[in-house]
Backbone:
């Protein structure tokens, strides 16, 4: 049981430190900060769990173990789907694959933009947003639906508060 | 320990079955645009996930020879990792998602509407492309050689994995 508690506390510490670094920190390397924070908290959580003096009396009850593993099971399926999504939709991945597929394993900027047009991606995304009923189109003009507007304001507010986004 | 092993077996079963069904086109995922493709994968994985629950409980009840308790530090790692992954996904969606950016740009436009040319004016594809490349240079996936971009070993490893996944899961060119 103490292992699960340490894992949750370690995670909460990671989120708190990361959000504080976004809000008050000066580093522009957000991912590096997140990775270092997570690794440190993970080591502390695992170390704390194994060194906890009352670990034995706090043995994990069977029902809690099953619930925790079912949560991890769901997360693994989610992670697998996210992997598919990133491999398929990420622009950075597509650029790397374009270079990897070239005969000399190198491409110039013009070659890349000829083979991979972001305008086409933008058109596809607008179609996705219409399919998801977040955006509607009338006479060649796009506007958010109520759902899209709520979403835009929520994410926009989060981005402004933490000073992230807008660069990609 | 018993629950963990049962979980590993159930997850392997689902991921393996998804791979086989998609790779050999036992289940053909047809779509007219990307959101439909992802919705189809979610439906398929959801169905297999329910099937996997049966595998989980069957394994859990039959693996009685395994000790019930697992080391506390292992629990800490296994609980931390998925929570962190979910948080990271949420954070990256907030930070980098093109969909979110488009909705924000539409919301910020004077009349809260834009035609496609207007979207390209406020969300310049060329700037985005350069920022993507700068990000990969910065993170050590690419390096510059003369006028060309070349992959580092790290970039090459990721590109090969991505190309393999795109091929076996019939994802198309993507991007």
Residues:
């Amino acid at each position: 049981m103490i292992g699960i508690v340490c894992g949750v506390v370690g995670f909460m510490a990671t989120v708190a430190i990361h959000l504080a670094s976004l809000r008050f920190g000066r580093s522009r390397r957000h991912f590096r900060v997140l990775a270092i924070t997570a690794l440190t908290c993970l080591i502390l959580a695992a170390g704390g769990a194994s060194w906890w003096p009352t670990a034995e009396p706090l043995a994990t009850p069977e029902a809690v173990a099953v619930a925790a593993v079912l949560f991890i099971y769901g997360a693994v399926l989610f992670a697998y789907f996210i992997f598919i999504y990133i491999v398929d939709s990420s622009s950075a991945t597509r650029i790397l694959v374009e270079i990897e597929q070239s005969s000399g394993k190198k491409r110039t900027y013009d070659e890349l933009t000829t083979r991979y047009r972001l305008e086409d991606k933008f058109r596809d995304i607008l179609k996705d947003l219409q399919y998801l009923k977040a955006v509607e189109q009338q006479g060649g003009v796009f506007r958010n639906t109520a759902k899209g507007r709520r979403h835009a304001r929520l994410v926009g507010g989060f981005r402004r508060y933490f000073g992230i986004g807008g660069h990609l | 320990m018993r629950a963990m092993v049962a979980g590993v077996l159930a997850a392997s079963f689902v991921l393996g079955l998804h791979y086989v069904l998609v790779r050999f086109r036992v289940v053909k995922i047809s779509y007219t645009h990307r959101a439909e493709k992802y919705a189809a994968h979610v439906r398929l994985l959801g169905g297999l996930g329910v099937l996997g629950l049966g595998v989980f409980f069957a394994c859990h009840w039959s693996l009685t020879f395994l000790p019930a308790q697992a080391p506390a530090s292992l629990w800490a790692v296994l609980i931390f990792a998925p929570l962190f992954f979910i948080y990271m996904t949420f954070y990256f969606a907030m930070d980098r998602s093109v969909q979110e950016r488009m909705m924000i740009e539409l919301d910020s436009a004077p009349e809260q509407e834009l035609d496609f040319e207007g979207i390209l004016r406020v969300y310049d594809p060329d700037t985005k492309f350069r920022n993507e490349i700068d990000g990969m240079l910065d993170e050590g996936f690419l390096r510059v050689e003369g006028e060309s971009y070349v992959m580092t070993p790290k970039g090459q490893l990721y590109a090969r994995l991505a190309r393999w996944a795109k091929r076996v899961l019939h994802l198309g060119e993507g991007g």
Q: What stands out?
A: Chain A touches chain B through 107 residues (CB under 8 Å). Chain A has seven helices and three strands. Strands of chain A lie at 106-108, 135-138, 141-144. The CA atoms of residues 62 and 68 of chain A lie 10 Å apart.
